Amino acid sequence: MSLATFARNAISDYRTTAAVVPSSQHLANAMVEPLRGKSLRVVLEFGPGTGVMTRELLRVMPDDAILLAFEISPRFAAYLRETGSDERLHIVQACAETATAELDRRGIDRVDGVVSSLGVSFMDLTLVDAIFRPLLPRLSHDGVVTQFQYIHRTRMHGGRVEYFNVGQLMGRYFRSVRSSCVWLNLPPAHVITCRGARSCDRPASS
Ligand SMILES: C[S@@+](CC[C@H](N)C(=O)[O-])C[C@H]1O[C@@H](n2cnc3c(N)ncnc32)[C@H](O)[C@@H]1O
Predict the structure, then answer these.
(1) 70 CA from centroid of ligand 1 (Å)
(2) Are 170 and 131 spatial neighbours (Cβ–Cβ below 8 Å)?
(3) What does each C-alpha distance from 49 to 38, 41, 64, 72, 165 come to in angstroms?
(4) Which atom of ligand 1 is nearest to the CA of 131?
(5) Using an 8 Å Cβ cutoff, are 46 and 91 in contact?
(6) Measured between alpha carbons, how far is 122 from 91 in angstroms, rounded to an integer?
(7) To which CATH superfamily is domain 2-197 assigned?
(8) Rounded to an integer, what distance in angstroms lies between the CA atom of residue 45 and that of residue 114?
(9) Is the Cβ atom of 149 under 6 angstroms away from ligand 1?
């Protein structure tokens, strides 16, 4: 069912879905691993899709924590609401760019972790900047952000396929950026783990 929902979304909007099948459990484990054992109160998820990372996150989060999951696709948001029944999980059907506004609305000033599956390689860099930069002052001092990128590390730019390293991009926002490869995923993917928010004013340029 999750596979069919995912495939339907990919067919209707491939650029935003940025994948044809959900991530593997191996990739979900690797994305969530850096958050394990931390004292998590507020966690954000960007692009939960059909929830493979969401379920793993909920496994490592304490009972009193909250998970705000920002999903732009109405189909995925509806799927998650139908299939998820955990009161810690709040599905926000909106662009990840609205995360700080949502935090303000809920009176939350600190975030302990962010797990992002956004297809950064498909996104305009001004949007990536608008998503990540406002979060930097909200991250707790030992906060961690994970993001993945498929192994080929390419993007379409100006009608051409070019090399594009999301880890390097994340270096604009974080002092420590580490990558590790998860082979058991279709396609294999780099998990990029970011710590130490920079307080830089330099905007990303494409
Ligand atoms: C590569 S899929 C990952 C889905 C799921 N996390 C997984 O790993 O199987 C990217 C997800 O990001 C969502 N998405 C894309 N752009 C978004 C945005 N600006 N804000 C929130 N979600 C977005 C897509 O709808 C899709 O669910």
Answers:
(1) 8
(2) no
(3) 24, 22, 24, 9, 23
(4) 19
(5) no
(6) 23
(7) Vaccinia Virus protein VP39 (3.40.50.150)
(8) 6
(9) no
* Domain limits, the chain: 2-197
Taking the C-alpha atoms of residue 20 and residue 177, their distance in angstroms, rounded to an integer, is: 27
Q: How far is CA 180 from CA 6, 33, 142, in A?
A: 25, 12, 20
Q: Contact, 104 vs 124, CB < 8 A?
A: no
The pTM score is: 0.95
Distance from C-alpha of 182 to C-alpha of 184, rounded to nearest angstrom:
6
Q: Which amino acid is at 167?
A: G
- 206 residues of the chain, pLDDT tens digit each: 689 999 998 999 988 998 989 999 999 999 999 999 999 999 999 999 999 999 999 999 999 999 999 999 999 999 999 998 899 999 999 999 999 999 999 999 999 999 999 999 999 999 999 999 999 999 999 999 999 999 999 998 888 999 999 999 999 999 999 999 999 999 999 999 999 999 744 554 44
Phi, psi of 173 (to 5 degrees): -105, -25
The residue contributing the CA closest to ligand 1 atom 18 is 95
CA of 16 to the centre of ligand 1 (A): 7
Biggest CA pair distance of the chain: 47
